[in-house]
């Protein structure tokens, strides 16, 4: 499937795990502030995931104050999970504030495959150059008008000058010249609402402490995938799993990352 | 209390459990999409309850896109838990979309006993013919202007051509000609917010895979009641209970339903 | 640090624990209704904390009905966690309704240190005489323009004729003439979102059953701190902790309060 002419350089397992360990250590040391524009379904779990890992969330959507919050933050998440006028106004102000302050921001185009207005809006936002876009296969297809194979994802990342973090049975992360595939994670992650939203917030948290957006995005998705596997070992179903993955994000360390990371081929 | 002239036919325990097992199997097989208009207190737990059981929730309230979401869904929940302009506009569009697409919808008239405006609004919605109304005794009394005894519930269901799912120490489910009483459940269910809201969402999920609205509503309430009992056996209080009932919804099967169902007299 | 001329009288450990036990017993006996204006991040956990302890939460923000809800409640919480037009209108109506009905209300000025508009708004609200203000050190400093030492807190409480409940490694509670320091709590409490918001709601619940606002506020903060310690003993991280503290609020009793309370010096 990979065209040797255009294929991105594959990141090695060792490169990935050492970067993820370094990013995690910096995140815990700096406790970056992550402002999250996200839907009300996801707010609580997203905040708890950031806190568990060591970041500091804020979530206001008020147009009158979101600029001040973002200016005092270290990264921004824009999640389209509930798409209404208030959140679009907040997003416009927040992305401006992030740009003016040189802060990284992440787009999570939730459910762009379910309503055409969301896809239009997401495409407009992508012109404002998020550092990373984290999404699933159906959302990628709706945005990129292409099947989510390796070549399409790499090509999309290159054309939009961003990092794509595509989650699925294996995650694929690509920028304009590199890519990595992560095979960690667990099926129970799909049975807890806001798991992807929380992962996107963690991408934002990692971007706050790592300038290489591919390394930050891959680190975040690796950490979440491993935490999911650790949680599944202690769970009897999605309720206990949701608590256990927060516990896992709290205790995960470089050794667990090194032991559990699984990279591999995709597509 | 029952007038033999007008009393509804009682559904037998065997009829109930075999229907519930069949509904559960279809729900897990089809993974119906359930769009939920619900309050922000209940959104996360409601989404997790649907996911745990095997349905796929969506929750947007935006007037610009809710029609598209409902049109691509298999059932709709309208919960009055937070009652504001945005949700009323969304409800109007969503119920229209459900009607036009022949989708079942469920009304949960939360707290209609606490503010007169809600009761007025709920009565207006009931003219739009929800397939089922799930509520508690205080809410029934506020809506129906009658004590929640068997005769009143059966009469209300008949007059409104809907199914009433009245939850309480024993649940009573009635349509225009049949009724059933379910004695499952646990007192900890009243100590977790949004438990009733989640039950109503599960009624919507069951209506998505079962045309007989009484069978669907009774199946949903039986499944939730049994899951509550299973959860209580593994809990030390309402916090662990909330996680455990999601685990129970994930593992519940036909055998557990057949062993644990308790039907009986009401009122 | 304490100026013997102006220092407040210190409440003894025995006074505190016997009051907290009495407040808890009354709260469980009366199941007071607590209406909460709070942010959508905190709503679910706040409702569950109140239910776990034995109070009955409601959370509507609709201007059309919030007056009716507050009028039928026993106490009101105003939390600035998400600060938008809807919540400010709701707050205005709700505080009016509380005043007219003689109900106690609590202010939680969340994040007033992060956006100047919030601090302005919080100062305006404080003129409407909340019975108690629960906040952390950064929020106190932003509101009072003073470092959060004992003298400043006592002076602020005296000037505003309210109770200040300052949470931190040790909690300090003061009114115009008395103060108490509580050294209970656990570091995991800072890793679960809405823990402070839930504590403020519990202050409102205690004010519903105890006219002495200092006793009510100190009882609430003692109960929450002890529940946090009990929860930490059963937790593997913040996810299991969030469930365990709800379990602890459900089972905490006079004996646990008497055994575990730690009062002491502050600042």
Describe the structure.
Chain A has 267 residues and is α/β, with parallel strands linked by helices. Chain A has a single domain, classed as UDP-N-acetylmuramoyl-L-alanine:D-glutamate ligase, CATH 3.40.1190.20. Chain A is 51% helix and 14% strand. A nine-stranded mixed sheet of chain A has the order 1-9-8-7-6-5-4-2-3, sandwiched between helices. In chain A, helix 4 links the parallel strand 4 and strand 5. In chain A, helix 1 (13-30) runs antiparallel to helix 11 (254-260). The longest helix of chain A is centred in the last third of the chain and has 20 residues, at 213-232. The mean pLDDT of chain A is 93. Chains in contact: A-B, A-C, B-C.
Keyword list:
51% helix, homotrimer, 267 residues, 9 strands, UDP-N-acetylmuramoyl-L-alanine:D-glutamate ligase, globular, 11 helices
Q: Output the helix-strand order of chain A.
A: EHEHEHEHEHEHHEEEHHHH
CATH superfamily of chain A: Ribokinase
- Low-confidence region ranges of chain A: none
Q: Tell me, what's the shape of chain A?
A: globular
Whole-number mean pLDDT of chain A:
93
Tally the helices of chain A.
11
